[in-house]
Amino acid sequence: MKKILFVMALVVLAAGMMLAQTTPGTPVALPLQGGIAGATFTGNVTGQLNYIPNYDVMGAHENGGRGCAGCHAPHNGAKGNGGTATGYGNWASAQGGLWGEDTSGIMTGYAGGITFNAGNSHHSGVLTWGAAALVPATAWTDSTYTGVATCLSCHDGVNATGAMLSGSAYEQAFGLLNGAAPVGFNTNRNGALSTALYGPNAIPTFLGGVTGLGYNYQHPVGQTANLGAVLGTVLTNPAYGLSAGVTNASIKVTALTPQSPYANFVATYYPTALTATVSPTGNTNAGNNFVVCTTCHNQHNMAVYAGTRGGGGLPTGVTQVRTIFFVNGGYNPGAPYDPTHVPSTMRFCQQCHFSFASENYGATNVGTAY
Predict the structure, then answer these.
(1) Total Cβ atoms within 10 A of residue 88
(2) Per-residue pLDDT tens for 227-265?
(3) Any residues with CB less than 8 A from the CB of 36 and at least 6 apart, and which?
(4) Per-residue confidence in pLDDT tens, the chain, 370 aa
(5) Class of residue 129 by CB neighbours under 10 A (exposed 0-12, middle 13-18, buried 19+)
(6) Cβ atoms within 10 Å of 193's Cβ, excluding its own
(7) Cα Rg, the chain, nearest whole Å
(8) Reduced 3-state DSSP string for the chain
(9) Which residues contact 163 (CB under 8 A, 6 or more apart)?
(10) CB 77 within 8 A of CB 136
(11) C-beta neighbour count of 7 within 10 angstroms
């Protein structure tokens, strides 16, 4: 017995010496502690799990009273919204979907693409408008046009006029961000209401048109902002459980490996944005699926998420939850979080940025606060 104890002590000592020799700042590779060989998942959800909005779900996209016609002119498209043939050009003439805002300035002004985040991260770079042969006549067959250019035709802050875009977020202008919360919700550690969630300055609704800023300061979208770049081995390594649901470029969340790290995440937050990424034409690799504006935003509902976008659903026991800023998923800054319930605002980002999720480190008891 003494020999065994002595040998064990030597092993522990050797391990300690190895750790002590690790270069400072160098991460130590730790094995995944996921449920494949670990504990049964015990996390749950909390918060407003049957949220009923108290303001109109279209909100900002009421377009100053013009309603749907602000984006979808029912007659003659962009020209029907007041443009002239000379000013609007071929792109306006060719665009489909009854699109009511001119995209000419976007397509010609950024003909070579748009650089996001100054190219400073491994999943950012230049968005190109689909195939090299993209021309006005085929614009509406390309997802970068329908999912990015159409959005920017208002949100660049230059092309859209009239009632469009006041420059301050609708939720902020109408006092929807810092309202009083129900008892037990949105409290700090002292039990007092934490109502000052955002600063006093206007939250901009513009992207490229902001003076002194531009697309270099925006979250990247387009071909280089793809799942392979941001998820890395999480997408392909069976240990994470996500690869079991991947077939070529398709992701089937219900097929994830049970009790795996990613499946434990999905148990309390359905990855709608992940399944709403765009697959390039002819693509057979999910790593090439990329983000467009409508991956993260549902332009038709700014107040409540009910699992209707991108083939998404909701965890068991959840019917519909609060969202803001047209976010395509549960996104509630006032959620009643605690040490074992992550705010839905963080969960939304962790769908792709899974390396920041507790489940990536083996947690099996963490849930989501809606």
Answers:
(1) 21
(2) 999 999 999 999 999 999 999 999 999 999 999 999 999
(3) 239, 241, 257, 259, 260
(4) 444 434 334 333 333 333 333 222 222 233 444 444 457 899 999 999 999 999 999 999 988 888 888 888 887 777 777 665 555 556 666 666 678 887 878 887 888 788 888 766 766 777 888 765 566 767 777 888 889 988 988 888 777 766 677 778 888 888 787 544 444 444 443 344 445 677 777 888 888 766 667 788 889 998 889 999 999 999 999 999 999 999 999 999 999 999 999 999 999 999 999 999 999 888 999 999 999 999 999 999 999 999 876 667 888 889 999 999 999 999 998 898 999 999 999 999 999 999 999 999 999 999 999 9
(5) buried
(6) 16
(7) 24
(8) CHHHHHHHHHHHHHHHHHHHCCCCCCCCCCCCCCCCCCCCCCCCEECCCECCCCCCCCHHHHHHHCHHHHCECCCCHHHHCCCCHHHHHHHHHHCCCCECCCCHHHHHHCCCCEECHHHCCCCCCEECCCCCCCCHHHHHHCHHHHHHHHHHHHHCCCCCCCCCCCCCCHHHHCCCCCCCCCCCCCECCCCCECCCCCCCCCCCCCCCCCCCCCHHHCCCCEEEEEHHHHHHHHHCCHHHCCHHHEECCEECHHHCCCCCHHHHHHCCCCCHHHHCCECCCCCCCHHHCEECHHHHECCCCCCEECCCCCCCCCCCCCCEEECCCCECCCCCCCCCCECCEEEHHHHHHHCCCHHHCHHHHCCCCCEEEC
(9) 63, 64, 65, 66, 70
(10) no
(11) 10
Please identify which residue in the block is written with the tokens 């017995």.
1
Q: Give the pair of three-digit tokens for residue 297.
A: 């935003």
Give the pair of three-digit tokens for residue 54: 């108290």
